Q: What sequence folds into this?
């Protein structure tokens, strides 16, 4: 070999070695970055490699860093747990630790913001919805994506080609992904299967559920549409967190799980869960349960609903139930079932109408309605047969019978929001309630006074807050309810610590708000006595009861609800935390 050939061969060998070394170093740099981010993955070099000693030491450092982060997270969690007050900032910090940069997607039927045409302009409004009131502050705090059904007539022109837009409009904090349903899909999935089938099935309100095969087909179709949209939002991510809201999406957890086994999925069921015998009425009960058990975590408001669900899975699917851990074990998968009592963003609600005192609110309300009474009661509901509005009216009638001295001195205002009017039962109910109010008014009204004022409209939260402040009592008499946030809204609004809450024993809120006057809404006399006791209760007792309930809401607000769900979902898969 000539000298030139030797030099050429040496140079070529050096270049090859340099390329190889640079390639290995690039892989090592990428690997070390992933170690720093918390991923414990094998080194990209073999044991015999020249770089193995360096890679081995880096791997040890990565493990140490992983353990240090886990310990720090546990210590932080203990500190957070020791605190009594959850705030948006605290939730944001907590979720950032849990997610560690991974995406968070929330799915709900109702969108938090809708765009509607008003003359020649487009207005953005927040729909009146208990779910939106409870969940929207979480997305504001944590960011992420909210996937929902579009409902506004100007929704298309305010979103991009994929149905996405940043919200809230005044201070964007997260992404809203809108999906459009056909009239046929809306009729079958929402009005049909969800609200004529599952809703009455799960509520003990003695309304027969209706199941149609065509509704079931649309329900499956819409769940598949939401699954595709969610998977689209999760593309290119690892170990995402998915929080699915309510009975509209019972099939969705399994659909997402089948395509993304790495996803961490929670399904929160906002309505009650009935007994196994009752749920078996549904022709597709097994398929619904199988869909729900695609979730890692199933949440309900109270423990008894969790127990009913576990018993249903045990009987209808013959699944193995771990009653110590409250979990369903089936086909190698595990679903933990726990209660998470939802609440409100107490400070946010209190801020609405904060400039208005109870006295000024009362003056404005009385002037608006032409009332001249000493005491006023209020009820705030969707017009729904589960809310016990008719039973409430009859309790007022009985109260005025037993205590005639309160006639012409007490009036009750029902703020009723028309709901699901496309369903005959709901459409008929509005007229039935109006007829009942008219009957009672005709019996008692004198000289311009009437005991019941029934205001049917989509009332703004500002209007509702004004009535809360003006009222002496608030009646929440649900025949069966998962939670009922009206009870919590009334307590949160009364910063003066006055007023009395009359609350159904069959609403989930009764498990926490024990200082309300608890009643059986079917017992008309008990309801009448509760009204009398409320109106004769001393200011000192009112203040004492309200203060204790206020403390509960401050300590158990919606931020803590979200933190508890996210923490539990993370706990189920500790190996994937980082």
A:
């Amino acid at each position: 070999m000539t000298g030139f050939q030797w030099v050429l061969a040496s140079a070529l060998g050096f270049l090859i070695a340099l390329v190889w070394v640079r390639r290995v170093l690039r892989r090592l740099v990428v690997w070390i970055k992933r170690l720093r981010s918390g991923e414990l993955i094998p080194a990209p070099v073999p044991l015999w490699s020249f770089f193995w000693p360096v890679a081995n030491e880096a791997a040890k450092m990565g493990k140490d860093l992983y353990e240090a982060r886990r310990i720090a997270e546990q210590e932080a969690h203990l500190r957070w747990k020791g605190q009594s007050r959850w705030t948006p900032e605290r939730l944001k910090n907590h979720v950032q630790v849990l997610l560690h940069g991974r995406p968070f997607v929330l799915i709900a039927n109702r969108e938090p913001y809708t765009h509607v045409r008003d003359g020649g302009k487009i207005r953005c409004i927040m729909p009146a919805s208990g779910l939106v009131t409870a969940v929207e502050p979480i997305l504001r705090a944590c960011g992420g994506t909210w996937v929902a059904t579009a409902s506004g007539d100007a929704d298309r022109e305010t979103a991009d080609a994929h149905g996405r837009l940043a919200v809230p409009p005044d201070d964007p904090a997260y992404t809203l992904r809108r999906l459009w349903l056909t009239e046929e899909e809306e009729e079958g999935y929402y009005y049909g299967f969800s609200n004529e089938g599952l809703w009455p099935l799960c509520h003990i309100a003695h309304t027969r559920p209706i199941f149609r095969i065509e509704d079931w087909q649309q329900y499956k179709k819409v769940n598949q549409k939401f699954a595709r949209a969610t998977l689209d939002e999760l593309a290119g991510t690892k170990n995402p967190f998915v929080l699915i809201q309510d009975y509209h999406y019972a099939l969705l957890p399994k659909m997402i799980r089948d395509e993304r086994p790495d996803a961490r999925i929670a399904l929160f069921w906002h309505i009650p869960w009935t007994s196994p015998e009752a749920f078996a009425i549904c022709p597709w009960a097994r398929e619904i349960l199988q869909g729900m058990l695609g979730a890692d975590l199933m949440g309900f408001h109270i423990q008894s609903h969790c127990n009913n669900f576990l018993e249903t899975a045990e009987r209808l699917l013959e699944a193995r139930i771990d009653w110590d851990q409250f979990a369903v074990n089936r086909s190698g998968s595990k679903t933990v079932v726990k209660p998470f009592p939802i609440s409100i963003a107490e400070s946010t609600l209190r801020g609405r109408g904060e400039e208005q005192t109870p006295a000024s609110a009362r003056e404005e309300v009385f002037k608006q309605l032409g009332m001249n009474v000493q005491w006023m009661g209020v009820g705030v509901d969707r017009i729904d047969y589960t809310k016990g509005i008719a039973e409430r009216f009859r309790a007022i009638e009985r109260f005025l019978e037993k205590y005639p001295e309160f006639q012409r001195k007490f009036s009750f205002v029902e703020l009723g929001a028309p709901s699901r009017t496309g369903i005959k039962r709901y459409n008929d109910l509005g007229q039935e309630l109006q007829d009942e109010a008219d009957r009672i008014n005709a019996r008692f009204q004198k000289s311009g006074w009437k005991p019941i004022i029934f205001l049917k409209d989509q009332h703004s939260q500002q209007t509702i807050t004004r009535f809360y402040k003006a009222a002496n009592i608030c009646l929440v008499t649900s025949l069966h309810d998962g939670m009922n946030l009206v009870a919590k809204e009334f307590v949160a609004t009364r910063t003066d610590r006055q007023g009395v809450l009359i609350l159904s024993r069959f609403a989930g809120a009764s498990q926490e708000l024990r200082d309300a006057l608890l009643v059986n809404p079917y017992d008309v006399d008990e309801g009448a006595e509760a009204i009398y006791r409320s109106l004769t209760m001393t200011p000192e007792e009112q203040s004492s009861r309200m203060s204790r309930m206020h403390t509960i809401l401050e300590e158990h607000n919606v931020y803590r609800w979200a933190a508890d769900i996210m923490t539990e979902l993370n706990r189920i898969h500790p190996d994937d935390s980082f």
Notes: The mean pLDDT is 89.
